[in-house]
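Annual report, structural modelling task.

Input specification for the zinc ion complex:
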Amino acid sequence: MAKQQTAAAPPGVNTSEVLLCSKCGDNPRADGDSNNPWCKECRAEYQRNYERLRLLKQERHGYAQGISDMRELLAGEFDRLGFAEFSAIEVRDLIRNAPGPKLPD
Ligand SMILES: [Zn+2]
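The model returned the following structure:
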């Protein structure tokens, strides 16, 4: 069994010892009855990091999806144009003037 860190109980708590946060080891656990062994500060930090990473993942996913959609849009445009011959400058202009993929609903 893991060794439990303890500290003096804060005022109003009817016990002589309080379990400490398993992450920082400095603060009492936010909820002694819960299975979560962290203090309020460690829980809040985890939530902030989790939300930041979730948003970053969402952004990266959207960026990758945009690249994929743009590729398909340009390929579709060249499919539409068939066997026509283009200069590099014409292809450049076609790419620059392409409207871009639609935003998802
Ligand atoms: Zn903590």
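Residues 21, 23-24, 27, 38-39, 41-42 surround zinc ion (CB under 6 Å).
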